[in-house]
Amino acid sequence: MTTHPARTTTRKLARFTGHYVEMVVAMLVGMVALAPLWPSAWLARPDVDALVMATNMTIAMVLAMALRRHSWPRVAEMAAVMYLPFVALLVPYWLGAISGGALMTAGHVVMFPLMLAAMVWRRAEYWH
């Protein structure tokens, strides 16, 4: 039986931060790699473009989390957190209360802290 020395709080924080950064990098890769697969006519509509971008980011992030062997409930939870801001902002966009640029910007601005909140809420999954 082997025992592992307890990790310091600094080391745990570094690994937690590393998990977050890995997900963000995966999302960026997904945006770039998967964007050419969609018809350009779809991307001309800001609402569809926002959902396509969320899909591209989510696909790559799900793959990254699966490779790290995260539990499927946590993967699904993180995927939902990534879509939530965009879906919530569709109604104000459709009502003309916000522009397409505001939809895209606000969706991203809200998504990143929500991802962090999900990680903190489920810190046993990420903090080790």
Attribute tags:
128 residues, mainly alpha, 0% strand
Summarize the structure.
By secondary structure, the chain is mainly alpha-helical.
Task: Explain what you see.
By secondary structure, this protein is mainly alpha-helical. The protein is 79% helix and 0% strand. Helix 1 packs across helix 3, helix 3 runs antiparallel to helix 4 and helix 4 runs antiparallel to helix 5. The protein starts with 8 loop residues before the first helix and ends with a helix. The relative contact order is 0.15. The model has no long low-confidence stretch (mean pLDDT 91).
List segments where confidence is low: pLDDT < 50 over at least 5 consecutive residues. Answer: none
Question: What's the total number of strands?
Answer: 0
The assembly state of the depicted protein chains is single chain
Task: Give the strand content.
Answer: under 5%
Given the C-alpha coordinates, what overall shape results? elongated
Layout: helices, strands, pairs:
Elements: H1 9-34, H2 40-43, H3 46-67, H4 72-94, H5 100-121, H6 123-126
Helix pairs in contact: 1-3, 3-4, 3-5, 4-5
